[in-house]
Amino acid sequence: MPPPATPPRPPAEPVRQATAGWQRELADAVRDPGELCRLLAIDLPLADEARRSAAGFPLLVPRAFVARMRKGDRHDPLLLQVLPVAAERQVAAGFSADPLAEAAALAAPGLVQKYAGRALVLATGACAINCRYCFRREFPYAESGATRAGVEAAVDAVAADPTIQEVILSGGDPLLLDDERLGRLVERIEAIPHVRRLRIHSRLPIVLPTRVTESLTAILAATRLNTVMVVHANHPAELDAAVAAALARLAAARVILLNQAVLLAGVNDSVAVLATLSERLVEIGVLPYYLHLLDRVQGTAHFEVSEDAAKCLHEALRARLPGYAVPRLAREVPGEPAKVWIM
Q1: In a domain, 203, yes or no
Q2: What is the count of structural domains for the chain?
Q3: Model confidence at 289: pLDDT above 80
């Protein structure tokens, strides 16, 4: 499971870590439901329920993300993504701890390989925000090699397999590695002759935009690898001016920017919200990529939108937006050779 507290920091580097602004912001993230409710001026009984529902997967949300929530609105779509609720404790048929069968896809410590030509490195098990619908909320990161030693073994395995042309950095969130560690990892990957592309999946440019530092963009601009960053925004309210500026810095570093969203009941299951999300993404230079159906991890059934309802929403989006602004409606099915496109 993701760690309940601040992501671990290398003990030999405490001074350097403490000087990074984004790391100070992360250390100051909201972890207590009572504090979150007070900041948003919403009912404190919600905090008591949240504490009971957060066992094993606690509340974690940066203040920059909290600042985008509407005060006094317990149904705010950003709040719903992070606040633990009683529904998470309910057992639902068809929901499991490993809905994508990723344990069976471990090709080496720290390396998940589901699809031909690509391999996913578990760069860390930590995140900057605990999204309640996360499909890896039950994932055994330490046992699966999301450690320094595991990352080294994963890169060695990539180097030994000439069929792998694209390396995907995931986790957790790979941008929780500081710039020095991330830079070393990118250097190791680009030294593998058969690897052509680097893909980074990260929510940090959205929830903690100060993470997009000058040194990070320098690392990405300098690599010989074609670099793609897939960010994760589910609602247009997530995309404020600070986020837009962070994404512009990445674009200036020649990073291709894509967004994947998860279709979530009560958060973005309306044509108006999805259309506004796509239009805002295009406006700030990000191409809508995937709209995922929920991965059915236990504790998330209250977020599920039926496939039929999803198809209706997607049809309406296609009628409303230009084709380049319409994300692919997709789900992941264990054992399939690629994502399954629903529409």
Answers
A1: yes
A2: 2
A3: yes
